[in-house]
Design a protein that fits this description.
binds coenzyme A, single chain, Aminopeptidase, alpha+beta, 7-stranded mixed sheet
Length: about 150
C-alpha cells in the first residue's frame, strides 16, 4: 500500500470497473448508453486506446484516446478517477501518459470536450496546459453546451 498508481493498457477484465466508475460520474459524460459490451467493443478498435490506473491491485481510473496518426490528430476522453481518490494528481498522471502515447503515434494536435457545467473538468484541462478553443451550443442530446480544449503536443 504505497498509494502510488501504475498506469497500464486496458484488459477485458477491467470492463466492470470502468463501467462502475463511469456510472459514478455519468452526468459529466456524453449519454451514450454505455454498457460492458460497448466498452469491450471500443477497446478493440484500431483508432482507440484505453489506459487504466491501478492502485494496490484495484482499478482507480481510466482514460480513453481516439486518434488518427495519418492526420496527426487525437482526442482525449473519457477520463475518470474514482470519486474517493480525486485531487491527488492521478487524473493528471493518466493524462500525461495518454499524451505520451499519442505523441508516439505521431499525433501533434489533441482536443478534449467538457460540458460547460463541469467546473472540475474544465479546471482539470486548464491546469494541464489545455487551452479553450471552442464553445459548442446545445452539443449533447440533452441540450448541454460544451467547451472544446486543445493542446499541441
Ligand atoms: C476530471 C478528473 C479526471 C480529474 O482527476 P483528478 O485525479 O482529481 O485530477 P488531479 O488531481 O490530477 O487534478 C489536477 C488539476 O485539475 C484541477 N481540478 C481537478 N478537479 C478539480 C475540481 N473538482 N475542482 C477544481 N479543480 C479541479 C486542479 O487545478 C488540479 O490541480 P491542483 O491539484 O494543483 O489544484 C476527475 O475529477 C473526474 O473523474 N471527474 C469526473 C469525470 C470528468 O469530469 N471527466 C472530464 C470530462 S471527460
Amino acid at each position: 500500500m504505497d498509494g502510488k498508481i501504475r498506469i497500464r493498457e486496458f484488459t477485458p477484465s477491467d470492463a466492470d470497473s470502468l463501467l462502475e466508475m463511469h456510472e459514478q460520474s455519468a452526468e459529466y459524460f456524453e449519454d451514450l448508453g454505455i454498457n460492458r459490451e460497448f466498452i469491450l467493443n471500443i477497446s478493440q478498435r484500431g483508432d482507440f486506446r484505453f489506459l487504466v490506473a491501478e492502485r494496490d491491485g484495484e482499478v482507480v481510473g481510466f482514460i480513453g484516446v481516439l486518434y488518427y496518426s495519418n492526420v496527426g490528430r487525437g482526442e482525449i476522453g473519457p477520463v475518470c478517477v474514482d470519486k474517493s481518490l480525486r485531487g491527488r494528481g492521478f487524473g493528471s498522471q493518466l493524462l500525461e501518459k495518454a499524451v505520451t502515447f499519442l505523441r508516439g503515434e505521431g499525433v501533434s494536435r489533441v482536443i478534449a470536450r467538457v460540458k460547460e457545467g463541469n467546473t472540475g473538468g474544465l479546471k482539470f484541462f486548464e491546469g494541464n496546459g489545455f487551452q479553450q478553443e471552442g464553445f459548442f451550443k446545445r452539443y449533447t442530446l440533452k441540450g448541454e453546451d460544451v467547451v472544446q480544449f486543445v493542446k499541441f503536443i
